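Researcher: Structure prediction, please.
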Amino acid sequence: MSPLLQHRKCYEVCSRLFVLITLAVFGQIVFGFSAKADSTSGNRLTYLDASEPFHVGLHFPKLTTPQWIDDPKVDAVVTLGIDDMAQSTRYEAFLRPILDRLKRIDGRAPVSIFSNAVNPQETRFQEWLKEGLSLEVHTLSHPCPILGRHDFASAEKTFHGSVNLLNHVPGNTPVAFRTPCCDSINSPSPRLFAELFAHTNSAGQFLRLDSSVLLLLTTNDPALPKTLTSDVDGRGRFSKYVPFQSFVTTVENYPYPWIIGKSCWEFACMAPSDWESQHSLGKTNPVLVVDWKAALDAVVLKQGVFNFVFHPHGWSQSTQFIEFIDHVVQQHGSRVKFLNFREAETQLTRHLGAGQALRASDGSDNGVRLVDLNNDGFLDVLIGNPQMQRTRLWIPTLRQWRDSVLPVRLVDRAIGPTSETGARFGVVHSDGRATLLIRSESTTGAWSFEDDRWVEQPQLLKGLELD
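Model: Predicted structure follows.
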């Protein structure tokens, strides 16, 4: 290692120790990895330094649909993600009635097809893309689970090879991934996101969004009527679809996008999938649609996202999706918008990130963070890179963003990919609002979020108590 790199590495380590020690002086913050702490805990921001994909839940700050979509009339989003495509003929037959029904809404057919080893030159793909579909990544060989063979090189090959293949479909740029069998086995894992998703392939290509974690709505959410979350016998409406007792790659009562490891938007799949339904109730059971409608009504109340995972394998029927779409239109009208995953990621970049994507153009960290700055239960946005240093505070009563300056960069670039500057976030105030500290080669400072802006706190650097 060169002396320069040794110096930079040492400085990075020392900077992080400075932040930890300074905050620990007051005994007001505990830096562990208990990311599910409540909103007043000093631990509530530790998720920012972890790659764990399951840290959200009922008490985690919300990222509602009005925060990231450009239409003020829209309260909820539905994505239709169908899995396992290797040949297109079966998919055209299954999807055609669904596509035609969607086009009756606004002329678009926003469906995402998670694809395996397809022929990128197939002419049908061009027809689909014109209609509004997107082709997304599902690995080349569909391993279940992707990391289950003690052969990481094979996992890299099937993941990164699929990213490359789908980029060779003319007019298609994949943005999303779904790990095979995510609705039936414990397939997604922290290592998947940290060591596969967060990297680029040999061509420099990468993805921006995942839909592999499973979402369960439960009776524990007081904001939802029990008629939506319970069956007539009082048991959980959606918990009956969990395929086995130790199925743990789930989150509960968080129907919103979130960020995993600074590089991945997660759009959790809604339970039940059609596989889970046929596993629990039998193929094409009419209860499936009843429960889909209840889940959709709950998502609209929560201003969230309903992400389908389904298949053309006889577990569900096209008519069941048309019945669901009819329910959306008749009960909620323009309050619900159908998007494919490419469109969803574009909306997040433009209207949440003010044009700044989660990952930079080379796939590295772009300095975009979601933090509940004022502890009001809604996520706010920080953008700190060489192009933009901005704080975006969400004002829920106005349904709009209030922008101000972010005093430091969160990532910077010397040579090659961006790297973190050493900025860290914690809670040192009794009201739970956020504090930012940094000690780097170029910047030393401390700020607390106060009255909708960052206020410098030099006394924090001296070890003096704030409040």
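Model: Confidence is low (pLDDT under 50) at residues 1-37.
Researcher: Thanks, that helps.
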